[in-house]
Amino acid sequence: MTTTTQPGIRPANATGKITYTPVDGRLLDVEDLHVEFHTDDGIAKAINGVSFTLDQGESLAILGESGSGKSVTAQAIMGILDMPPAKIPHGAVKYCGVDLLTMPDDRRRWVRGAEIAMIFQDALSSLNPVFPVGWQIAEMFRQHRGMNKSDAQAQAVRLMERVAIPAAKERVKAYPHQFSGGMRQRIMIAMAIALDPAVLIADEPTTALDVTVQAQIMSLLQELQQERQMGLILITHDLGVVADVADRSVVMYAGRLVETANVYDLYRNPAHPYTRGLLESIPRLDQKGQTLAAIGGLPPNLLRIPPGCAFNPRCRMAKDVCRVDLPALREVASGRHSACHFAEEVIDA
Amino acid sequence: MPEIILPKASEIGRSTTSEVILSAKDLVKHYPIKTGILRRTTGHVKAVDGVSFDLHKGETLGIVGESGCGKSTLGRLLVRLEAPTDGSVEFEGADMAKASGRELRALRRNIQIVFQDPYTSLNPRMTVGDIVGEPLDIHPDVTPKGGRRKRVQELLDLVGLNPEHINRYPHQFSGGQRQRIGIARGIALDPKVLICDEPVSALDVSVQAQVVNLMEKLQDELGLAYVFIAHDLSVVRHISDRVGVMYLGKLAELGEEDEVYDRPTHPYTQALLSAVPVPDPTLRGKREHIVLQGDVPSPANPPAGCRFHTRCWKAQERCRTDVPELILRPDGRGEHFSACHYAEPRAVVDTVDVTDVEPDERFADTDVRDPATIAAVEGQPGMDGPVQDAEGLVEETPEQRAADMSSLTMHDEGHPGKVEDPRP
Q: Average pLDDT for residues B275-281, to the nearest whole number?
C-alpha cells in the first residue's frame, strides 16, 4: 500500500510501475458505498450502503436484475460515473487499503487500467470505430508505459494472440467492424489485461453474445484469471453463468446487498426470499416438466423505495416488521450473510 | 430435398394431435446484395435456405439457433411479412403464397405474430385500446360492430392486465406489461397459430416466468399453436413440445423436446446444448463442454455440403460435398429428424424429471395475471408497481441494461408524470 514513485500517467522509467501491495491478499474493500442520481423528479438512490471485499485470485459475482445497482457499483469502483448527475454522498472504495474516491484525479487515472480494468457488455460501442484494433490495444502501452509505436504494436500482437484471435499479425490493422461479436469481446479483454491489472471487472461480458461464444469467452476469462491471479468481479443477471464461474456471490436488490454467500450455499440453500424466488423462476436446461413460478410485482422505483425492507411488497413471507424495519445484512451462518428478518426460516425452507 | 414431414405415432398425444395446421415446405428466402452505383445484384444472403416442417393443432414448436441462423426471417415468412423466394407456407392446406387480396387477409387472421422488443413494437402514440383493437378494425367481420371496446377489455383481462387501463399509452407500462399488450394484440382475432419471435428475451428473469406462464395458460384455453422462436435453450425446452434447431438457414435437427435435448444426434445441437450454463454449481466441471472453433460462416457464402462442416469435429470428405438431408435417423431409442451424415446420439444434458415437483409458493407463485393488476383488483396493501409507477428503470432491453442506471436522466422523458397526452 505504499507508493514508491510519484504517481502519474507516464512514469519516468518504463518499468517504474507504482506498486500497490495487497494486505493479506485483500485487493478491494468497498465500504458502505452510496450512490445517488439527481434527476428532475427527485433523488434516485441507486446504491444504498453496499460493502464487500475482493481477494487476489477470487471470482466474485454481483447478481441482480436491471436497476438493482450492479453496474453502478462497478462504475463507482472504476471511477467512471458521470458526476453529476451521479453523486457519492458516502462510502469508500479501498484498493490495497487506499481509498480511490479521495485519490487525486491523475493518480486515479493511473490506477484505472493499470491496476483495475473493466470489460463492458457491448464491445462494438466500447471500441473506437475509426482506429485499427491493434492501435487501440497499443495505446494502453503508449499511454501508460511510454512505449514507442513499434514496441507497443508488438505487444498488441502478443496480446491478440493470447486471447486467441486467429491470424493476429495480419488482423492487428483491422477495424472493429471487421470482427465478429465474440472476436470484438476478445479484443476488449486484450485491452483490459494489457497492463496486468490486479482487478478485472466484467460487466455482463457475454450478455450480447450467442451461447457457444459465451462459453468460449467465459473460459478465456477464467483461464486468464487463474494465470494472473487476478481478482475478478463478474456482473451478471445470469444465474447459470454465476454457477459456472464464481467462488462467491453477492445478490443485489434496489441498491442493497440482500445476500452474500459462496455459490454452493447460495444455490443449495438461499438465505433470502428474493434469491429463493429467482431460483424458482428460471427454467433449467436439465429439467423436464418444470413448473415455473414468478416473483410477483416489480422492482421498486428508485425514486420511491418502500420503507422497511425494499423487497417487502413482493415478498410472500413479509410481516409487519418488514414494512417498518430495514433488515441489516447480518451473518446467518458461517460465511453467509442475509438481509432478511426471517433468514433462518428461509434457509430451513 | 427433405421429405414432407409426416407426424409420427409418438407425436400424437399430450397437446399434439395429428391435425396439421401450418406447413412450411422448402421455404427459401434469399436477400439480394447490391453493390456499385448501378445497384447490381452481386450475391445473395441465404437467410432461410430450404426449411420444411409441420405444425400441429395446439402444439408448441420451438425454433432455436444463434444469431444470424435465419430463425427470425423464418418467423416473418410464416406470417408472410416477407414473401418467400421459393417454397410455400400452407395454412390448413391453402397456399399462402398463392393467395392475394381478400383471401390472403382471411388467411392472415389465423396466423399472428408477437415481436421481441416490447419497447419498439407498440406505437407510442396509440392507446392500448387502439393497439389491441386495431386488428379488429382491419377484420371487421370478426367482432360485431360496437363490440370492439368490450372485446378489447376482454382481451386485456385474458392477458392479466387491468381492463380499466384501456386508455393508457405504452410508456405507462413496464416491459412485462407491454409484452402482455403485444400478446393481447396477437390473439385479438382468435388466431389458430401465434408466431412468437423472442417474446421473453428482453425481459428480466423474474418477469420472464410470468409471461411464459401466461402463454401456456392461453394455449390451454384457446387451443393455440405456437411457433416459439428463441435463442434461450432453457426457455424453449420448458415451453415446447417439439424443437427445431437451425444453423445457417437450415434445420439441423427436429424432434420431440426430449429427443432433441436428451438424445441429440447432430453435432451442432450437441455443442449448443453443452454450452448452456446450468444454474447449479455442483455440476461445475462435471458437464461435458464441447467448444466449437471459429465463428459461424457468412450466410452470403455458406459452405458447400453440410453447412456445419467447417466447425465440426466429425467432418469427413463427404460432408464437404454432400448436403445431408433432414431425415429420420436413429437416436438410440427411436428415431428423429437430423441432418447429419454421421448422426449419432450423444447425451450432453443430464435431465431430471421434475413434473411432480411443485414450486415453493412461499417465495414465488404461478398466478399468470400481471402483479400490479392483481394488486389493483384485490386491493392488496403495499404491492408495488401500479402502472403509474412503471418506467424504463424496471426492465430494460439488453442495450439499455448496459447503460443501466447512469442513463437515468434519459428515462425521465418517459416518466408518466411529465408526459402530456401525445395525441395532436
A: 90
- At A3 the pLDDT is 40
Residue A200 has pLDDT above 90, yes or no: yes
Cis bond upstream, residue A84 (ω within 30): yes
Q: Tens digits of per-residue pLDDT, B374-422?
A: 766 665 544 334 333 333 333 334 444 344 333 333 333 333 333 334 3
Q: Residue B105 belongs to what domain range?
A: 21-240
Give contacts of B396 with chain A, Cβ < 8 Å.
66-67
Q: Is the pLDDT of residue B423 over 50?
A: no
* CA proximity to B387, closest of B398, B378, B376: B376
Which of A129-133, A175-179, B273-277, B301-305 has the least mean pLDDT?
A: A175-179
Residue B422 lies in a domain: no
Classify residue A23 by its DSSP letter: B
Q: Do B371 and A276 touch (CB under 8 A)?
A: no
User: Are both B265 and B225 inside the same structural domain?
Assistant: no
* Backbone φ/ψ region at B350: left (φ over 0), alpha (ψ -120 to 50), beta: beta
ipTM above 0.85, yes or no: no
Residue B170 belongs to domain with CATH number: 3.40.50.300
Supply the Cα-derived Rg of chain B in whole angstroms.
23
- Rg over CA atoms, chain A: 21
Number of domains in chain B: 3
Same domain, B285 and B382: no
Q: Are residues B139 and B195 in the same domain?
A: yes
Q: How far apart are CA B71 and CA B195, in angstroms?
A: 11
Same domain, B389 and B330: no
- Asked whether residue B68 falls in the same domain as residue B156, the answer is yes
Give the three-state DSSP class for A2. coil
Query: Tell me, what DSSP letter sits at residue A193?
Result: H
Residues 334-353 of B with CB under 8 A from A: 349-353
Q: pLDDT tens-digit profile of B80-112?
A: 888 899 999 999 888 887 888 888 888 888 999
Span A260-290, pLDDT tens digits: 999 999 998 899 999 998 888 888 898 888 8
Q: How far apart are the CA of B145 and the nearest CA of chain A, in angstroms?
A: 36
Which residues does B189 contact at the CB level (< 8 Å), separation at least 6? B109, B110, B112, B135, B136, B139, B142
Domains of chain A by residue range: 271-349
Residue A239 φ then ψ, to 5°: -65, -25
State CA A329 to chain mean position distance. 20
CB B113 within 8 A of CB B89: no
Residue A25 reports pLDDT greater than 90: no
Pick from B280, B289, B298 the residue to mutate for testing the A interface (most A CBs within 10 Å).
B280
Q: Do B383 and A296 touch (CB under 8 A)?
A: yes
Looking at the structure, do residues B150 and B183 belong to the same domain, yes or no? yes
Which residues, in sequence order, are bridge partners of residue B335? B330
Which three cell numbers mark A1? 500500500
Residues B173 and B60 reside in one and the same domain: yes
Closest by Cβ to B66, choosing from A65, A211, A316: A211
Q: Do the chains contact at A283 and B238, CB–CB below 8 Å?
A: yes
